[in-house]
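Task card 7
Instruction: Convert sequence to structure tokens.
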Amino acid sequence: MQIGKVGNVVKAAFMAAAAVWLSGCASRQEAAPAPAPQVAVVEEEVLVEVQPVLDPAVQAVVDTGKINATPEEIQALLDKNTYFFPFNSSKLNNEAYKSLDVHAAYLTSDAGYMKNIVVQGHTDERGTRTYNLALGERRAKAVKEYLVAEGVAADRIEVVSFGFEKSLDPEHNETAWALNRRAVIVGE
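Output:
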């Protein structure tokens, strides 16, 4: 039984110490609550730049990084599919090269690499049928050769000559003849 008394004494001492400790805690002043952090409400204006959705062909040309032009300029150059020539010539001019560069960028892009085109050569009515068919072919080949030099596969470009058979303007004057001397890209 002696062990039971010692156990009771230990329990009593423990409870007394706990009571002293608790009473000491009660006499302390409670610390003032920490001040609430001040929150500043800031209204911020966010500007979002909205880009217009581009035609897929224009976006493909932009994505190549080969053409230094605005999307609007690229669209205008892609829309240009007719190239005019001087009398009895198959030489392209500088304006044609700019447009053909854009067509080549599109045709070599991911979006255009599977597309095939036809280049039609045309002439005015002056000259023989045989001569004009050959001249129309040279004009169409001039366009094809430039596109091939810019990386378009030659087997994706077909050349057709119509000579003077498909006139834009049926009149018989310089203005009409100038419109009829052309090469046209079809099928993009």
